[in-house]
Amino acid sequence: MTITITAFERSPDGGKGLARDTRVRWALEEVGQPYEVRLVSFQAMKERAHLALNPFGQIPTYQEGDLTLFETGAIVFHIAERRAGLLPDDPNARARAITWMFAAVNTIEPPILELANARLLEGDKSWSKERLPLVEDRVRNRLKQLSHRLGDADWLDGAFSAGDLLMVSVLLRLKSSGILDEYPNLSAYLARGEARPAYKRAFAAQLAVNTAKSPTR
Ligand SMILES: N[C@@H](CCC(=O)N[C@@H](CS)C(=O)NCC(=O)O)C(=O)O
Prior knowledge:
With 217 residues, this protein is α+β, with helices and mostly antiparallel strands. The protein is built from nine helices and four strands. The protein has helices at 21-30, 42-45, 48-51, 72-82, 91-120, 128-150, 162-171, 184-195, 197-211, and strands at 3-8, 36-40, 61-64, 67-70. The mean pLDDT is 96.
């Protein structure tokens, strides 16, 4: 059955791989599942047809037959559950890997997004300079805890799993900030994720979209 995901027609990051279709592409690449991509404009994302797929008017969405999903945590979980390669067979190890998936999107990603918003959207506010260190410290607090838990292991719990895929994906947003350099084991963890052939294919695919010449631009 054909799998179709949606992605930005033109990502605001210009192809740095931060748009969340990259993590879905990565999961599909890890399990060797071919997929198609339907590109959507910002305007189309807010129109009725797209809102029927994602009520929040966002990308990515995932369609497989009569199944439509949104939320990358749920999409990656669905892919990992149905195809081998992203979740261990042992029930307890599987439950722990799923725990890391939730930790990535529910505990680590929120302060990182808050920092991105503080820098990008609030930089011109009078209170921005005062607030920024607080937001950065919330990120550091989580990174310190994560770094402590990872220690010198390659991955969060045994073999690479969907938990690592989502954790690396959310940490990628910090790559250009310099904050990750304060946690060498997390920087190395990120590099290990980026070095995976499946990630490289996913990254290249989204980059190709964002560097393609468009007659309308
Ligand atoms: N929690 C959602 C977040 C989805 C999301 O924020 N998508 C962004 C792109 S990475 C988007 O569509 N932004 C445009 C908008 O919200 O208008 C998920 O993980 O799928």
